[in-house]
Design goal:
The protein has about 230 residues and is mostly helical. Helices cover about 55% and strands about 5% of the residues. The protein has one domain.
Length: about 230
Amino acid sequence: MWMSAQGEKVLQGAHATLIRNALEFVADIVEGKADKVTTHWQFNVPPFDKLDWRPQLVLLSHVGDALLSEQVATPQHTELNDATAAVLYAAIRQSIEIEIDNAELFGGDEDWETDDPALPSWREMVLAACCAEEIDDLPPVDSPDVDEWDVLIDCLSTNILWDADWQIADLFLDVDPQRGNEVKQSMGIDQDYFVDVPPEGDEDELLAARYLLQRILAPPQADADSF
């Protein structure tokens, strides 16, 4: 379960499918850092980007499980957890930009390597998720307007993210603690929001994270039927 501004929730249907694909994309990027393949990839989410790949992978497994599994205890509302969830939506943005910039590779009805029916595009998945969340005024699936897709992704993310408090941690670095606590209280930010410690990402944690990701990335039949 995930704690949103509207209360505890678990993603279902097309929105779950979208986030599951984003989670797989980000996990592949993070694992690529371990192999020195994607060393310089940034998601433009500083609390997550600045971490080593090991705690990144562990955080992804925990946050992904909370977003997609009812049986999981709700994680604390903290900067690192929020930033990790925000990374998934940032990855969707990046994937759509790649898709638009390489339209000739993503416009066919079949997978050019296997002749199988093509998998849904990122834009198709976003539109399906928007329909499931009753978001209106949707663009055509082949729209190349990145800003238009950004708006839709922001709308989807509000179902999960309270706000963007993870972006303002630097404001409290050199502030008197008492004054900082007063500011956080006035902004509705938990006093311990910025002080959570990232996981170490030792071998046991990495093994558990990879096992967990393997389990939650297997789409349930209900999600598979969304397309």
